[in-house]
Amino acid sequence: MGREDILKRFLLIFIFVILGKCFYLQVIKYPELYQLSVKNCIRVIETGIPRGLIYDRNGRILAKDAPSANLVFVPYDLKNPEKVAEILSNIIEIDREYLIRKFNGNYKNPFDRIVLKRNLTSIEISLIEENSSNLPGVFIQEDIRRVYPFGKKMAHLLGYLGEISKFQLEKLKEKGYKMGDVIGQDGIEKYYDEFLRGIPGGIQVEVDALGHQRRVLGRKEGQPGNDIYLTIDATIQEIAYEELGDKKGCVCIMDPRNGEILALVSNPVFDPENILPYLDERKHPEKPFFNRVIKGQYPPGSIFKIITEIAALETGTIKEFDRIECSGFIEVADRVFHCWKEEGHGWVDINLALPFSCNIFFGTVGMKLGVSKLIEYAKKFELGKPTGIDLPGEASGYIPQPREADPLNLSIGQGPITTTPIQLLSLIATVANGGNIWQPFILKKIISPKGETIKENTPYLKKTIYIDFETLDILKKGLKNVVEFGTGVRAKVEGLEIAGKTGTAQRASSETELPTHGAFVCYAPFDNPKIAIIVYLDYGSSPQAAEIAGKILKRIFIPEILEEENETETSISQI
User: Fold this and answer.
1) pLDDT > 70? residue 486
2) pLDDT higher at 162 or 79
């Protein structure tokens, strides 16, 4: 074979290789390469995911969207991360090391816009725009921010929004969530995120080789999510927040007739529109994101005496007028058990023991009942078990095994037993309505953007506990006397009959030098209960808790009572 033939064959092979490569690139790889070229010059920029409105029971807006601006960057267009980080950290308040970590992150899609800072101020926007020529790959992007008109007053109830984490994305990516999305991180915003979340809008833009935006090619409007109506009464919520004040603890208010939550407040609190300052635990060791109503697990203290009394009367362990002497202490084996009143209460029956919260009386009754029976009745009322309220992260509390507790301590709500404030609220509500355990709930209904009802909550009766009428009558009379002349007298409101129970619990042995927990549960009006309240203070006394509850009830009911009296007087004058 001559040189000429070899050259011809070589040229033919070379041509076939070139043609094959062209076929591969222009036919087989065409869709992929076309998309890459489009992405390189035409990009779709999301302008935020609109969310539905959140309303209270009376139609007052609790959460809504508002326009905002974010600082973002495109990894592909960022040529000199260190220089850009230096410039940015000098012109706006953002840490240089944080920027470098962000810039050098491992991103699957180099054309994605990664958020550096949300909700830029007008001054920050001006500074960035002035330096835009030195910030290739960095942009200001329109977005949506969440606005909470009631601010901190609704923080633990509504929750807040935050960027989705890698852990959350693993669970939610199949539902259409992606990196960079802002989702509900707590409260109603988290629990009903899928309903509130809308369809993102965006703009299609043309960019140059440096990634700078040249022109807008089109816009797609986002579609808002569903609107949510809650059982919450914003006025009652404000009252509860104001009366709790700066005390560490919580307040929750429920309708005992159906389980609707009317107010839920926990303190310390945070600003749901600006959570960053609260993330530093060194500055906020008091855990401002901790919702004490549903996550706090505390000893119930003397509120547990409601359980002890029901168990004792229902089993016939005591009768209404059986008396026990309280001298201030009793000796059991080698142990001395004290009453809170050092000099004792003297001879008392159940009608005085509950209002005066006599430890000796209930301790003696508890020993007669035994640990197993006390635990049985605690479980009947679903203490130590999540209530099922529609909020994320509800704790269960703990009801001990019989071998773990002694009847003296358990009968007065001390020892290894813990409950959540929402469980104690459910307990007093069950007493108020005669034995019905309603599941607490906050969502009233969900309405689509078209006005269609997607979901509507109706009260759910979990169970009914049979309590003998005589037992209930004795208990309710005692609870009313707690407020009339007993340990809860500071809750007394002129013109309103209130039934309640105080609870003072010792803190853990490692915290014996610290103040006690103070709690108060109640319902009103006595003859026709419409409101049930729990006030639980991390550091405080039960009289303080009772006083807070009284002030709340006065602000809720006294205007109503005065209005009814005025209507009656008007009717009489017309006769």
Assistant:
1) yes
2) 162
DSSP 216: E
Domains of the chain, earliest start first: 43-225 (3.90.1310.10), 234-443+453-566 (3.40.710.10)
- The residue whose two tokens read 């773990």 is 404
The SS3 of residue 474 is helix
Instruction: Please give the C-alpha separations between residue 172 and each of 47, 66, 71, 183, 269, in angstroms, as whole numbers.
Output: 21, 25, 25, 11, 28
Separation CA 336–CA 339 (nearest Å) = 10
Buried-state track 145-170, b at ≥16 Cβ within 10 A, e below 16? bbebebebbbbbbbbbbbebeeebee
Cβ contact 119:159 at 8 Å:
no
Name the residue among 90, 115, 93 with its Cα closest to residue 103.
Answer: 115
CA pair distance 291, 448, nearest whole angstrom? 29
User: Alpha helices, DSSP H only, in 65-184?
Assistant: 81-91, 96-103, 122-130, 155-158, 166-172
Q: Which residues of 545-557 are buried (b: 16+ CB within 10 A; e: fewer)?
A: bbbbbbbbbbbbb
Going by C-beta distance under 8 Å and a sequence separation of 6 or more, which residues neighbour residue 454?
A: 195, 226, 446, 447, 448
At 5, is the pLDDT very low, low, confident or very high (cuts 50, 70, 90)?
low
* pLDDT tier for residue 293 given thresholds of 50, 70 and 90: very high
Distance CA 500, CA 489 (A): 10
**CA-derived radius of gyration, the chain:** 32
